[in-house]
Design a protein that fits this description.
The chain is α/β, with parallel strands linked by helices. It is built from 18 helices and 27 strands. The structure holds alpha-D-glucose-1-phosphate-6-vanadate and cobalt (II) ion.
């Protein structure tokens, strides 16, 4: 029996960089989740009788919204729902399952790297039939719909047992509860040389993988320990918890500090890695050396051909605009295309679908390829392992040689979190207003060559996305980028990204913050960070 339930619109359901993210109590308001899900369905066409994939990262409120989403899928006329056991699907696994089973699309319940719990964050995003995040055109339509919605459709199907692998009929719709790991693990086996990695572990290679009590735990256990033979204990914090054990499941040097410290210690394993709440980010640390995500993208691209899935070479590389230019140098050497997109994985979809890019990456610890349409944390870790196994060198040696060949892009991101929204907007508006006047002027002896607000012209569908981040380019190739986060749930987060290229191998061993200190100071002065935000220093440096 399907019911039509009257509802009133909420004004704040605008999807951000990656779906709608709000505090749990916001999502717990009556009809809040229902309104958003119905707005998604109302913005789609042709899904009657089709398949919808549903899964989440296991955070607080996951199970409740999954039940609602299944009942609404039935109420709206989907023919089948595929849902991960326990309501679990990592973002990359969901992307794969949408593609593999030719689903119409999928709902992924996650706020990714944001903390979870009764007073923390929740999120919903829609991925289309190519497995990728809804493009801007669709997220805009969803937001418009959410402001006008007056009813939602829901079927009375009772609670679905999410814990048993099963296929049941629910109000004329089929619900299949599947193993969230199996299909994904199988895909990884087609891309990487599991024998070579297995032999490396057999030879005593030691690794630490921190799943941060988030969704990647079961995937890492199965793939690293079971299929690749890594010793038990290689995967840590591998049970997904609704509150991630009280931590931020954000694999960076602040929130994965224990792993970082261990990797810098005398008894460090050979390789350390971590992933985030929904399993699409990766942190990679070699023994005694942190590899920035921007460098990791470049190094993976330069070496990808050693893995079976990429032996034919890459078609092109894409990176988000604030990501360092390290990968550009690799693309140039390989003679392949290089694409610079706005922040957020949704902008890579067209390039991947069109066969223009094979590998994509973001400075925020996101790397992925055309095997799915999301970034993929474990995929990046496995590609690193494959490269380490084939080259037989340490991560440090690989990085040092990479820099000697291509030069080093010193790179860092400074986040100012929970800044007053008005102050953050004022800073950006003021800076935007001065862009035309900046070129030709100098700050701390550094001359500004160009300044603009990044706009992206999608080469595939011709769409234009404006105001994607303010870029200040200095003479000599250094740059500073300013943008406001689109994933936070309280106040505003100002992100400052700085980059400086160093060709001289004798200067490749500097401390990153020291190597960038003048540039950081100049960027702070240009934007008046202290004046606007009252902050003396950033909340997080990565
Ligand atoms: C951040 C990152 C961006 C990433 C997005 C989603 O967005 O900067 O690169 O794609 O999070 O990642 P923002 O707008 O806060 O800068 V995830 O792993 O949180 O889905
Ligand atoms: Co994520």
């Amino acid at each position: 029996m399907t019911r039509t339930v009257e509802t009133k619109p909420f004004s704040d359901q605008k999807p951000g960089t990656s779906g709608l993210r709000k505090k749990v109590p916001v999502f717990q308001q009556e009809h809040y989740a229902e309104n958003f899900i119905q707005s998604v369905f109302d913005s789609l066409e042709g899904f009657q009788g089709q398949t919808l994939v549903i899964g989440g990262d296991g955070r607080y409120f996951n199970r409740e919204v999954i039940q609602t989403a299944i009942a609404m899928a039935a109420g709206n006329g989907f023919g089948r729902v595929i849902v991960g056991q326990g309501g679990i699907l990592s973002t990359p696994a969901a992307s794969h399952i949408i593609r593999k089973y030719q689903a119409f699309g999928g709902l992924i319940l996650s706020a990714s790297h944001n903390p979870g719990g009764p007073h923390e964050d929740f999120g919903i995003k829609y991925n289309a039939g190519n497995g990728g995040p809804a493009p801007e055109k669709l997220t805009d339509a969803i937001f418009e719909r959410s402001k006008a919605i007056s009813r939602f459709l829901i079927a009375d199907i009772g609670q679905i047992d999410l814990d048993r692998l099963n296929s049941v009929d629910a109000g004329g719709m089929k619900v299949e509860v599947i193993d969230p790991v199996a299909d994904y693990a199988e895909l990884m086996e087609t891309l990487f040389d599991f024998d070579a990695i297995r032999n490396m572990f057999k030879g005593g290679f030691r690794m630490a993988f921190d799943a941060m009590h988030a969704v990647t735990g079961p995937y890492a256990k199965e793939i690293l320990e079971k299929r690749l033979g890594a010793p038990a204990g290689t995967a840590r914090n591998f049970v997904p918890l609704p509150d991630f054990g009280g931590h931020h499941p954000d694999p960076n040097l602040v929130h994965a500090k224990a792993l970082y410290d261990e990797m810098m210690s005398d008894n460090a394993p050979d390789f350390g890695a971590a992933s985030d709440g929904d399993g699409d980010r990766n942190l990679v640390i070699g023994r005694g050396i942190f590899i920035t995500p921007s460098d990791s993208l470049a190094m993976l691209a330069a070496n990808a051909h050693v893995a079976p899935g990429y032996k034919a070479g890459l078609k092109g590389i894409a990176r988000s605009m604030p990501t360092s230019g390290a990968a550009d140098r690799v693309a140039e050497k390989l003679g392949i295309g290089m694409y610079e997109t706005p922040t957020g994985w949704k902008f890579f979809g067209n390039l991947l679908d069109a066969g223009m890019a094979t590998i994509c990456g973001e400075e925020s610890a996101g790397t992925g390829s055309d095997h799915v349409r999301e970034k993929d944390g474990l995929w990046a870790v496995l590609l690193w392992l494959n490269i380490l196994a084939v080259r037989g060198e340490s991560a440090r040696d690989i990085a040092t040689k990479h820099w000697a060949t291509y030069g080093r892009n010193y790179y860092s991101r400074h986040d100012y979190e929970e800044v007053e929204v008005e102050a953050a907007n004022r800073l950006m508006t003021e800076l935007r207003g001065r862009l035309a006047a900046l070129p030709g002027t100098a700050v701390r002896g550094m001359k500004i060559a160009a300044a603009d607000d990044f706009a992206y012209h999608d080469p595939v569908d011709g769409s234009v996305s404006k105001n994607q981040g303010i870029r200040i380019m200095f003479e000599g190739g250094s740059r500073a980028v300013f943008r406001l986060s689109g994933t936070g749930t309280s106040g505003a987060t100002l992100r400052l990204y700085v980059e400086r290229y160093e060709p001289d191998p004798a200067r490749h061993d500097l401390d990153t913050q020291e190597a960038l200190s003048e540039l950081i100071a100049a960027a702070g002065e240009i934007a008046g960070i202290r004046r606007h935000t009252g902050r003396e220093k950033p909340s997080v440096i990565t």
